[in-house]
Amino acid sequence: MFTRVQLGGKARSLEGDRVRLRRHEPGNYGLYAGWYGDPEIWHLTSWAAAPLGRSAVKRLFEERELSTTDDSFAIHVEGEEEPVGVISLMNLSEANSSADLSVIVGHPEDRNQGFGAEAIEMILRYAFDDLGLNRVGLSVFDFNDTAISTYERLGFEHEGRLRRAVKRADGFHDALLMSVLSEEWQR
């Protein structure tokens, strides 16, 4: 099941079976700062040189809320007020009918529960059906096997590799480029 609550031109929230995507509330920025400042989440997901500090995270989400090229939601488990993660369509391009996907699930106990996968399915449906996009892409680091497996299961295809593009304590790693097209998603 999937329903959307519209407000103006953008969906205010998206509701799935176990997960609901809601617009960000400033009261959650402190929680997000904990996630974006977490060395494990940084290691798995971030292009930044180091985990982000509280003020950088606050600024990031304030800018996302005002941006015309980002469409971002908090991931909530049904019946819970505190979000478990963040999912965004970034770099929205009307000219190219495309966007980039970004997703994190914050607390370790909330990972591997299917919340992120359901959120991705919901935001892809929103991207293709509501926003009329043709392509949603992403980058994922070659050592993040869990994320790669999830993206493949959801229909993302490998389309390239940025060789030795990200540096971690153990050396340089590749970033894999993946995408899913509207017609692939519809099948």
TrEMBL record:
<feature type="domain" description="N-acetyltransferase">
    <location>
        <begin position="19"/>
        <end position="183"/>
    </location>
</feature>
<protein>
    <submittedName>
        <fullName>GNAT family N-acetyltransferase</fullName>
    </submittedName>
</protein>
<keyword id="KW-0808">Transferase</keyword>
<dbReference type="InterPro" id="IPR016181">
    <property type="entry name" value="Acyl_CoA_acyltransferase"/>
</dbReference>
<dbReference type="Pfam" id="PF13302">
    <property type="entry name" value="Acetyltransf_3"/>
</dbReference>
<dbReference type="InterPro" id="IPR000182">
    <property type="entry name" value="GNAT_dom"/>
</dbReference>
<dbReference type="GO" id="GO:0016747">
    <property type="term" value="F:acyltransferase activity, transferring groups other than amino-acyl groups"/>
</dbReference>
